């Protein structure tokens, strides 16, 4: 049977350690397997490279030819096509179109389905990660790519439009309109908002920021455990949660459902990056399980410290609910949330001050350049540290071992001289050889302590940065629509009151965009400070231990 061919929609830098295949936009791949799971396929490139690719990054361009005899002579009646794309006379159907993304109505099945990759029991239940999900992680945590709902995933390296957002093959303004952005600007479908639900933005010396209206809390992901269901037919890894806002030590959480809900509710504006791992044969090995747990912890940390997402009722419900009946009630309430998509902006209460358009455009353009440059910087850091880790595992260990073994051989030769005055020197050289061999082993063990944690955090940021052009596109759509309304007023098609209302709502989107930009910069400072401190501490400890070994070896020559 002929292999399925796909066209690559975006650039993808795969993680070779996890068996991923890197490719460029416009490249043609042959799909080998589509049953990998979790939104991944196995593909082969034109130059023979083989690996895993995210299915949302590719588009089917041809279907495999069916293996059956040629059709009989043409019939008078036109053959009816079956649902699988082939006719009743076994004629090959047209190439399949890209499947639409799952709607929110479909998630009801995911939340109730016992096969959604999660266990929903009370009294300290644990949940699986890695069920059905339309994903990316960061990569994210490489992780990572965000779910495509109304449009395709973007690549920061692509051609940029006015504010640095990506020019893609589909209508981004249509995405803005479909998500409710235009309806919000025009004042359609307004809902009453209680004071307790309002999300306030305040102006500080650092610019616009989300007001932290609730007490901060934390949540830890621990205790990975292999579990099974369907009488052992399906196995998965469950993790336990301990949120600081609950007295329960272990809390039930359906990871996939939570992620999908947050994506659907906030995807128009906020960034989400969770690098879910592919279901592969070694997924239960200890290192893989621990790495996945770290990735989940990164994502949970980001969610609970975000000033808007952290106070989401559905997030609190998923983190704290252990009662089946209350779980169902909370689930239904989440499904009926009136402020999803662009309706979220109805909750935003910005400062009562009109913004200067030129000032906003300048800030957006500057932030876009920042995102582009940081994206390239992060990619470079990942490559550099990945290469350095490979050298630590291979060449560095090998070269130090060569030095150590050569000194050991020299000591063996010197040991042939049995005179008393030679014994001390021989022993010192032999000890030095052992020291260099141990240093080589130290280099081999160093990447998991030093390079790998940094690379993981950089992969997460790589995934987050890839979502920001989409966030800026929402703002650009709002500004563009506002300018159209101003022009309509000049032409007498809209009155001043209507246009003023549109501009006020456009300012709300601008305020929210500025607040989220500043929130990103605040998180970036916190994260990179922690990342570099950990990285340097590990390097300092490593070279201290290395120096101690050399100093100890040196002291052996004092009495030689």
TrEMBL record:
<dbReference type="InterPro" id="IPR036871">
    <property type="entry name" value="PX_dom_sf"/>
</dbReference>
<dbReference type="GO" id="GO:0006897">
    <property type="term" value="P:endocytosis"/>
</dbReference>
<dbReference type="GO" id="GO:0005886">
    <property type="term" value="C:plasma membrane"/>
</dbReference>
<comment type="similarity">
    <text>Belongs to the sorting nexin family.</text>
</comment>
<feature type="domain" description="SH3">
    <location>
        <begin position="1"/>
        <end position="63"/>
    </location>
</feature>
<dbReference type="GO" id="GO:0031410">
    <property type="term" value="C:cytoplasmic vesicle"/>
</dbReference>
<keyword id="KW-0728">SH3 domain</keyword>
<dbReference type="InterPro" id="IPR019497">
    <property type="entry name" value="Sorting_nexin_WASP-bd-dom"/>
</dbReference>
<dbReference type="Pfam" id="PF00787">
    <property type="entry name" value="PX"/>
</dbReference>
<dbReference type="GO" id="GO:0035091">
    <property type="term" value="F:phosphatidylinositol binding"/>
</dbReference>
<dbReference type="InterPro" id="IPR001452">
    <property type="entry name" value="SH3_domain"/>
</dbReference>
<dbReference type="Pfam" id="PF00018">
    <property type="entry name" value="SH3_1"/>
</dbReference>
<feature type="compositionally biased region" description="Pro residues">
    <location>
        <begin position="66"/>
        <end position="76"/>
    </location>
</feature>
<protein>
    <recommendedName>
        <fullName>SH3 domain-containing protein</fullName>
    </recommendedName>
</protein>
<dbReference type="Pfam" id="PF10456">
    <property type="entry name" value="BAR_3_WASP_bdg"/>
</dbReference>
<dbReference type="GO" id="GO:0016197">
    <property type="term" value="P:endosomal transport"/>
</dbReference>
<feature type="region of interest" description="Disordered">
    <location>
        <begin position="63"/>
        <end position="136"/>
    </location>
</feature>
<feature type="compositionally biased region" description="Acidic residues">
    <location>
        <begin position="105"/>
        <end position="117"/>
    </location>
</feature>
<dbReference type="InterPro" id="IPR036028">
    <property type="entry name" value="SH3-like_dom_sf"/>
</dbReference>
<feature type="compositionally biased region" description="Polar residues">
    <location>
        <begin position="118"/>
        <end position="130"/>
    </location>
</feature>
<dbReference type="InterPro" id="IPR027267">
    <property type="entry name" value="AH/BAR_dom_sf"/>
</dbReference>
<dbReference type="InterPro" id="IPR001683">
    <property type="entry name" value="PX_dom"/>
</dbReference>
<dbReference type="GO" id="GO:0097320">
    <property type="term" value="P:plasma membrane tubulation"/>
</dbReference>
């Amino acid at each position: 049977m002929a292999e399925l061919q796909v066209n690559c929609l975006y650039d993808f830098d795969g993680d070779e350690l996890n068996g991923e295949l890197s490719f460029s936009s416009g490249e043609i791949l042959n799909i080998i397997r589509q049953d990998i799971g979790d939104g991944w396929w196995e593909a082969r490139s034109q130059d023979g490279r083989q690996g895993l690719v995210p299915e949302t990054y590719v588009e089917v361009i041809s279907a495999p030819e069916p293996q059956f005899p040629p059709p009989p002579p043409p019939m008078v009646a036109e053959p009816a096509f079956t649902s699988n794309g082939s006719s009743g006379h076994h004629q090959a159907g047209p190439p399949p179109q890209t499947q639409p993304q799952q709607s929110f109505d479909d998630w009801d099945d995911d939340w109730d389905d016992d096969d959604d990759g999660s266990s929903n029991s009370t009294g300290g239940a644990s949940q699986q990660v890695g069920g059905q999900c339309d994903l990316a992680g960061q990569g994210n945590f490489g992780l990572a790519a965000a779910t495509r709902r109304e449009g395709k995933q973007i690549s920061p390296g692509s051609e940029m439009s006015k504010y640095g957002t990506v020019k893609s093959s589909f209508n981004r303004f249509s995405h803005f309109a479909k998500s409710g952005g235009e309806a919000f600007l025009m004042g359609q479908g307004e809902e009453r908002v209680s004071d307790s639900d309002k999300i306030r933005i305040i102006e500080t010396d650092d610019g616009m920021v989300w007001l932290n209206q609730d007490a901060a809390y934390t949540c830890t992901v621990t205790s990975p455990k292999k579990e099974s269901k369907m009488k052992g037919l399906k196995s998965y890894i469950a993790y336990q949660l301990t949120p600081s806002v609950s007295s329960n030590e272990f809390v039930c959480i359906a990871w996939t459902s939570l992620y999908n809900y947050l994506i659907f509710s906030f995807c128009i504006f906020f960034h989400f990056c969770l690098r879910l791992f592919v279901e592969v044969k070694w997924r239960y090995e200890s290192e893989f399980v621990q790495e996945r747990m770290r990735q989940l912890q990164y994502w949970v940390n980001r969610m609970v410290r975000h000033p808007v997402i952290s106070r989401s009722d559905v997030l609190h419900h998923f983190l704290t609910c252990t009662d089946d009946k209350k779980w169902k009630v909370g689930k239904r309430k989440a499904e009926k949330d009136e402020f999803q998509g662009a309706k979220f902006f109805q909750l935003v209460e910005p400062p009562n001050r009109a913004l200067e358009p030129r000032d906003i455009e300048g800030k957006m353009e500057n932030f876009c350049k920042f995102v582009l440059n940081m994206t390239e910087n992060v990619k470079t850091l990942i490559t550099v540290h990945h290469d350095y880790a490979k050298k630590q595992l291979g060449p560095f260990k090998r070269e130090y071992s060569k030095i150590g073994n050569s000194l050991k051989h020299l000591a063996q030769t010197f040991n042939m001289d049995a005179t008393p005055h030679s014994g001390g020197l021989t022993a010192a050289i032999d000890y030095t050889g052992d020291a260099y061999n141990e240093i080589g082993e130290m280099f081999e063990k160093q990447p998991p302590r030093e390079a790998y944690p940094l690379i993981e955090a950089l992969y997460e940021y790589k995934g987050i940065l890839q979502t920001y052009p989409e966030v800026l596109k929402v703002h650009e759509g709002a500004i563009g629509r506002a300018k159209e309304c101003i022009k309509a007023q000049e032409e007498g098609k809209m009155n001043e009151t209507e246009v003023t209302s549109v501009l006020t709502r456009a300012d709300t989107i601008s305020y929210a965009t500025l607040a989220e930009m500043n929130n990103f910069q605040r998180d970036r400072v916190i994260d990179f400070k922690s990342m570099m401190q950990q990285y340097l501490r590990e390097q300092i400890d490593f070279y201290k231990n290395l120096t101690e070994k050399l100093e100890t070896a040196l002291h052996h020559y004092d009495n030689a």
